[in-house]
Amino acid sequence: xxxxxxxxxxxxxxxxxxxxxxxxxxxxxxxxxxxxxxxxxxxxxxxxxxxxxxxxxxxxxxxxxxxxxxxxxxxxxxxxxxxxxxxxxxxxxxxxxxxxxxxxxx
Length: 106
Description:
The protein has helices at 3-9, 36-45, 56-62; strands at residues 14-21, 26-32, 49-53, 80-81, 96-97, 100-104. It has 106 residues and is of the alpha/beta class.
């Protein structure tokens, strides 16, 4: 499931939280509940779900892409889509989006 699908299926998953790493300059998703990243990582660490990087086309097919705005309503420049399987240790110089999906482990 993409973050879009998770938020469509579970209304509690929507919110105003951004799941990102300022240190690495990467964003995973926006407009989610503050607890959602913790819940997903707990399930991942318990080996109940898996995650996989995907093409942004998956999100386009779900009907949503990553669009962010500043508090004054101006659009944030679109982040670069991460193309590597590993985030550089020092992070990225420009903002990157790492599209991902979640699935039942096994």
